[in-house]
Amino acid sequence: MIDRCNQMLRRLPPWGLYLLGAFYPAWLLYLGLTGGSGPDPVKALEHGLGEAALQLVILGLFVTPLRRFTGLNLLRFRRAIGILAFAYVTLHLLVWLVLDVQILSQILRDIAKRPYITIGMVGFALMLPLALTSNNRATRWLGPRWRQLHRLTYLVALLGGLHYVMLAKGFQMEPLIYLAVIVTLLLLRLPRQTKRRLA
Amino acid sequence: MAHRWTNTLSAADVTPKQAYLNRRQIMAGLGGMAGLAGLGALPGAAQAETLEPNSWEDVTTYCNYYEFGTGKGDPAKNAGQLTTTPWSVKIDGLVDRPGDYDFQKILGEMTLEERIYRFRCVEAWSMVVPWMGFELADLLALAGVQEGAKYVSFETLYRPSEMPGTAYPVLDWPYREGLRLDEALHPLTLMATGIFGKDLPNQNGAPLRLVVPWKYGFKSIKSIVRISLTDTQPQTSWNMANAREYGFYSNVNPKVSHPRWSQATERRLGGGLFAGRDDTLMFNGYEEEVASLYDGMDLTKHF
Q1: Smallest Cα–Cα separation from A53: which of A29, A100, A85?
Q2: Does the CB of B61 have a partner CB in chain A at under 8 Å?
Q3: To 10 degrees, the CA torsion angle through B124, B125, B130, B133?
Q4: Residue B267: its chain A contacts at CB < 8 A?
Q5: Is this prediction's ipTM beyond 0.90?
Q6: Nearest-CA residue of chain A relative to B238?
Q7: Would you say domain B11-294 falls under CATH 1.10.3370.10?
Q8: Segment among A11-15, A23-27, A154-158, B102-106 with least mean pLDDT
């Protein structure tokens, strides 16, 4: 069963994911332009992109445990998932800068003074080296250091989850569920690391 | 009793200009201007700035009413099942005539009038809403405020069977709000029973809600079932949830920044994706009317 899934997945080209991934922001933008996303299209676009980016980060973190526990192999798609996550975060940031806050002095003050924005910006900054090295040349060039560098994903995921939890008003379940999923996916990786260190 | 305060916003004050003009064109095309023509036709409505009421759709589909869910569209989706008849308001505490006041009987005693107010959410968005209602002062006079009363506290209905959002501890239910007595008696402070000349939709706080236009929107408590006159400052829901972020007063103040949102500017809804931001006005534009309530107070400390 798993083998058949893996065989089928092998026939799917990773660029299909980019195509699919490009469609969603375009759809959100279309809704925003045509009044389909309600009275506050700026927030709808901003939050839609942010949430989808976080979902992609989580999807990326699922690849390894899925392979380990079920044998399902999505490794071929992980780069596309990561690059799409970065693209969504970039768009999310752009919407915030260009359509939402707009005022440079206020943007800078927001980044410095509001912890959830500071955390979001740090997360974005940490994604930059990851996006820049998500290609075959950089992978060859960095060798074993590539894996070390890309462990930054774990921190990025935590910061992303925290960013969401902190911006929610009152006690809200959804952002906490996201954070719990992220923490669980990271904890799943712990024993392996520890074992390797012990061996 | 009514008409102590004269409106300076007009029907031309609801929604950024472009959206408004588009809508006017559409409505003129449909020959449907009759409904809007009657709104806020008060003298002296000339404003340097062209604001206009938001659309019915903006006002009724973009709501914060966490008893029905935390999404902005949740109240419109989930509040339909709320039973609002019969409805009564318990008025108690330091009043001469405490008791359960039937909503229909209250209406019989009051003169309804239209008030077009700016509505500024603490989340830094805003609308302009044509409310229908009566002054809170008139309702309090009905119950007779006693000498020692200093504050008024309000409570929203808490009915889990009809309010799916209360299944989660987003806030400590029931929702509570409060005002200082002089704020409550101010002629701008409205008990709203309708919008756009119609009864309040459930998601907007039917059948009876508070509207305090110079304070952040969360002070304007919805679906009120209890009003108490007290001599001590009442507990208020958002203040209980996070005192550092939500003060008792919560006056709209562009100079006092909120830990999450700069309050210097706001996004006026209804203008679409590229509308941009406007400067937030002190006391949401009602400085002339209400500033004297806070003479001598440090508004940075009493935020």
Answers
A1: A85
A2: yes
A3: -40
A4: 40, 42, 100
A5: no
A6: A170
A7: no
A8: A11-15
Among candidates A33, A43, A167 on the partner chain, residue whose Cβ is nearest the Cβ of B260: A167
Domain boundary assignment for chain A? 2-198
- Contact B267/A at CB under 8 A: yes
Sequence-ordered alpha helix ranges (H) in A101-198: 104-113, 115-132, 136-142, 144-150, 152-167, 173-187, 190-198
Strand partners, B152: B179, B229
Exposed, middle or buried by CB within 10 Å (0-12, 13-18, 19+), for A59? middle
Nearest-CA distance A109 → chain B (Å): 9
Inter-chain touch B269–A32, beta carbons under 8 Å: no
Task: Provide the shortest C-alpha distance from residue B238 to chain A (in Å).
Answer: 8
Contact B171 A171 (CB under 8 A): yes
| Selected residue of A42, A91, A164, A177 to mutate for chain B interface (largest B Cβ count, 10 A) | A42
Q: What is the band of B14 on the pLDDT scale with cuts at 50, 70, 90?
A: low
Task: Give chain B's mean pLDDT.
Answer: 89
SS3 content of chain B, % helix, strand, coil (to 5): 30, 25, 50
Tell which wins on pLDDT, B5 or B199.
B199
Q: Which residue is listed with tokens 């409904």?
A: B35
Asked if residue B17 has pLDDT above 60, the reply is no
**Cα dihedral A34, B80, B188, B71 sign:** negative
Domain residues of chain B, as ranges?
11-294
Going from the C-alpha of A37 to that of each of A44, A163, B286, the distances in angstroms are 6, 23, 31
